[in-house]
Amino acid sequence: MNAIDFAIVAAYLAAMIGVGALASRRIHGFRDYFVAGGQMTASLLVCTLVSTYYGLDVLFGGSEVSFLEGVVAFFGYTRPYYVTILIAAFVIARKLKHYDFLSLPDVAAHFYGNGTRAVVAIASAFYALPLLSIMGIGILLDLVVGIPFVWGVLLGAAVSVVYTIMGGLLADALTDTLQFVLMCVTLGIAAVLTLRTTGGVDGLQAALPASFFDPTGTYPAWVLLVFAGSALSALIEPAFYQRIFAAVDYRAVVVALVIGIVLWAAYDWVTTILGMAAAARGIDAEPRYALLALVLEILPAGLRGLFVAGVLATAMSTIDSYLLIAGGNLAYDLYRPLFRPEMDEQRVLRLARWMILVSAAASVALALFFRSVVSAWIFMSTVLVAAALVPLLAALYAPWRPTPAAGLASSLAGLGVAVGYFVLISVFGSYDEEWATKIWTVELGGRSFELWQEYALLFALPASAAGYLLGRLGSRAAPEPAPEAAAGAHPLTPSGP
Amino acid sequence: MSAWELFTWISIAVLVLGSGAVFAWFLRDALRLLRGFDDDDRRPDA
C-alpha cells in the first residue's frame, strides 16, 4: 500500500469516530442508546441490516468454502438463510412488533420469566461476541500493513468500541450506512477487475474441475444439513430483533428485509465467484484469506486502499453492532433483572457501556481459539439456536400457554447439549486437514460413525425440544401475564429531569 | 454468455447500483431521523 492507500484508510477511521461523537449528543437514555428511540426508517434499516449481518465471517467464510468447493458455498451455505430471513420478516417480526420489547431476552422474560431470560441472555451475548471480525482485522492489518497481529486486533476493536460506546445504535446505524456502501461498491469493483483477468466466469469454468459448478459440491449430506440448520439462527438473530424493535413500524422491517435479501444474495454470489477465481489463479494462501490475497494482487494502488477500507468496514459494522448487543444483554438482560431490578435508565446505560468494553476484551481473548471461520460461526449459531429457538417459537405459536419450567428446561437442555457436544469433540476428536474441522470417529456395533464438530445442532435442537416437553409436563400452566408486562417487558425506571 | 456469467454480472450490478440507490434513499431520510430525535428531546416527559 502507498501513501494514498493509507490516507484513505485513516480518513475512513476518523469519519467513524466523528459520526460516533455526533450521535452521542442525541443519546439521553438506554432506549435511545439501544434501539435508537424506535426511529429507524426502512432505508436506514437496509443499510444497517445488510452491513451488520455480513461481516468477515461471511466474506472470508463464504470465499473459504468456494475456494475449496465452488458454488456450493452459495447454494448450500448461504442460500438457506434467505428462506429463514423471509420467515423472520413475514411471520415473526409481525407478531413481535405488537409488543414493546427491547431485546431477544426481553421476549423470553415476557413469556417464561427471568430464569429463561438469563439463559437466553448468556447464549445471545456469547453469539454476539464478534471474535471472527476482530480476528479478521488483525490478520488484514498484518497482511497488508505489516502491523503485528495483536496490535491490529486491538486497533480494530478499539476504534469500533469508541464510537459504539459513544453513540449506541444510532452511531452504529449511521456508520453502517457508510460501511454498507463501501463494502458493496469495493467488492463489486474488485469482482469486475478480477473477472477481467480470468476471462469471466466462463474462464473459471474452463480452469476449475466440474465439481466446482455442482450446487451440492462434494460435502457429505449431513454437513449440508448442518449448513442449512445453522440458517435457523436468522429466526432468533439478536441484531434482527434489535432492529425490528428499533424500526418506526412493521412495514419498514419488511421492506428492509426484502431489499436486504436481494443485496445479500448479490454479495454472496460475488464472494463465491471471487473465492473460485482465487482457486483458478492458484493463489497460495490459507483458504479463508484466499479472496483477500487475490484482490490485493489484482487491484492497483488507490483502489487497494479503498478495498482495505471496505474490508475494515465489513468487519467494523459487525463488531460495533454485536458488541452493542452483547453489552446490552449483559447489563440490561442479565445483571439488572437478577441483581438490581430497581436500576434506573441512566445506570443501565452506564453499565451497558462498561459491558461493551468487557465484551470486546472477551472477543479479543477468544479470537485465536478456532481454526476455521465456518466452524466457529456454526458453533456460535448452534449455541443461540439451541437455547432460544424452541422456547421462542413455542411461546409465539403453540396453542397452549407458556410455562416458566418449559422455557427454562428447553433453553438449559439446548445450551447444555450444544456446549457438552462441543467439549466432547474437542477432547476426543482429531483435527482433519482435508475438511478443516475436528472429527470424532466412534465405533458402535461394528460400524464407525464420524461425528463432526459442526453436528452439535443435530443433537442440541432435539434436546431443547425434549426439555420443553418435559418441563411442560412437570409444571402447571403459568398465570396470565400481568397487564403491564403484556404491554411492555422493560419496566426501566425513567431518570433525569 | 452462460447463465453463470449472466448471473454474476447481474449480481455485480445489483451490488454496486443497489447499494448506491439505498444510500441515496437514506440521505433523504436522514434529516427526518435526526429531527425525530430532536422532537423527542422537546417532549415534556423526555
Largest sheet of chain B: none
Summed up, the domain count of chain A is 1
Structural class category of chain A: mainly alpha
Q: CATH H level of chain A: which superfamily?
A: Sodium/glucose cotransporter
What is the alpha-carbon Rg of chain A in Å?
Answer: 22 Å
Topology as H/E string of chain B? H
The stretches of 5 or more residues of chain A where confidence is low (pLDDT under 50) are 479-490, 493-497
Head-to-tail CA distance between termini of chain A: 52 Å
- Report helical residue fraction of chain A: over 70%
When the domains of chain B are counted, the total is 1
- Which class best fits the helix and strand makeup of chain B? mainly alpha
Overall average residue pLDDT of chain B: 79
The CATH architecture of chain A can be named as Up-down Bundle
Describe the 3D structure.
The complex is a heterodimer of chains A (497) and B (46). Chain A has 497 residues and is mainly alpha-helical. Chain A has helices at residues 3-24, 30-35, 42-53, 56-69, 72-96, 104-112, 114-128, 131-144, 149-198, 200-207, 221-230, 238-246, 250-280, 290-298, 303-339, 345-366, 373-397, 404-428, 456-473, 483-487; strands spanning 430-432, 437-444, 447-452. Chain A has a single domain, classed as Sodium/glucose cotransporter (Up-down Bundle), CATH 1.20.1730.10. Chain A has 20 helices and 3 strands. The longest helix of chain A has 50 residues, at 149-198. The relative contact order of chain A is 0.18. The model of chain A is unreliable at 479-490 and 493-497 (pLDDT under 50). Chain B has 46 residues and is mostly helical. Chain B has one domain (9-46). Chain B has one helix at residues 3-42. Mean pLDDT of chain B is 79; it is low at 42-46. Chains A and B meet through helix 3, helix 9, helix 10 and helix 13 of A and helix 1 of B.
